[in-house]
Automatic annotation (TrEMBL):
SUPFAM superfamilies in alphabetical order: P-loop containing nucleoside triphosphate hydrolases (SSF52540)
Name of one Pfam family that matches: Arf
Protein name (Swiss-Prot/TrEMBL): P-loop containing nucleoside triphosphate hydrolase
Signal peptide: none
Gene3D superfamilies reported in the protein's UniProt record: P-loop containing nucleotide triphosphate hydrolases
Keywords: GTP-binding, Magnesium, Metal-binding, Nucleotide-binding
Record-listed GTP binding positions: G94, N148, Q149, I150, D151
UniProt superkingdom: Eukaryota
GO molecular function, a single term: metal ion binding
Record organism: Phytophthora cactorum
Residues noted as binding Mg(2+) in the record, renumbered to the chain: S71
Amino acid sequence: MRTGLVLGLDGAGKTLLLRQLIAQVVRKQKTVLERIVAFASNPCSTCSYSPDKDEEFKDGDYVVDPNTQPSVGVEHWSLPLDGGKACTLREVGGQLLPMWPSYFESCHFWLFLVDASNATQLAAAAIEFFSILSVDEMKYKPKLLVINQIDASFVIDDTILQTYLCLDRLLAEPDSGPVQIVKTSALTGENVAQILKWLGHAASSGLFSGNNPSIGLSGFSGRYRTLGRQNSASDMRVHPIVD
């Protein structure tokens, strides 16, 4: 089973994101079971069942319990995925930052969370992210940069995020290895389905081919740009991950 490393400074929302991932997987499994039962009880010719059909719910409509404690150690989360796959997500607390490198070699892919609502922490988060990216054994592993907490009343302006995190450079330079970026809310679940899809790829092979482009925003020629909360729900905040 492949192992992913979940990193980020204190308060970035690592535990809440993992809680949301588990909740969405459980809900999807429950929905599939309900469909099986419904089909078995009424197998009419007009009914159809597909276990791969996505459940019908709005992205970002599932709020999980926000009460968490700062991670002071290492937590392991087992996450079942589509197609019978699974992965282990290893969450290492921000307080263990000096110990992060000891977990680099054993991971197959990694996620780094940035709190989009904490302007005072942004520079430090960027420093740590690029510090990890400078390590060869992490540089070429699949990585997902998660811009979290977009549901907050205050969110850092997109141009500031782009500048501090050098997002254009990340997407343009092949030297950074396979990198993808997603804007999400671990609290409401917005775009968490995209993260699950990314994890499905990472758990399958740990590698992303050239057919799996870096995530930015569709329709913006590879440039990273995020949409504000004032945009319609139909606007995508990430590129769809290519299957």
